[in-house]
Amino acid sequence: xxxxxxxxxxxxxxxxxxxxxxxxxxxxxxxxxxxxxxxxxxxxxxxxxxxxxxxxxxxxxxxxxxxxxxxxxxxxxxxxxxxxxxxxxxxxxxxxxxxxxxxxxxxxxxxxxxxxxxxxxxxxxxxxxxxxxxxxxxxxxxxxxxxxxxxxxxxxxxxxxxxxxxxxxxx
Length: 171
Known about the structure:
Structural class: alpha/beta
Strand content: 15-25%
Strand order of the largest sheet: 1-2-3-4-5-6
Shape: globular
Largest sheet: 6 strands, mixed
Number of helices: 8
Distance between the termini: 28 Å
Number of strands: 6
């Protein structure tokens, strides 16, 4: 059995759930367990789907897995598919005509690339059809409290995103 994980964003606060796609229909029961005030009464299953980025990032996923994952995202009408950079063009084509966005990861998984490499990667992803970018910040610089570098890195990637009308999320 393959495990596909979903990230859920609730309101202004990001609440992450690792949810196996096979139990998607039981999601409302999971919400009860989480006990978010009146969440069940406030949102429909469709509303919840629009809070989900369907992540297709496992290193062993094949092109077939990625295509199937995009189809599942399209079927459930989730917010976005978070996809490997090399598959952005394909994902954009598969999701064409739907309102599921294409999100590419930059500097994934550890964020250790140079700022210039991340800017280039962002440019390519946007040109290939990504409308959202999940950038992995340089964790070593964060842990070392080199905030000048972190700010410079985020600003450079954000500037490239803005050129293409893409949304930047920093992870």
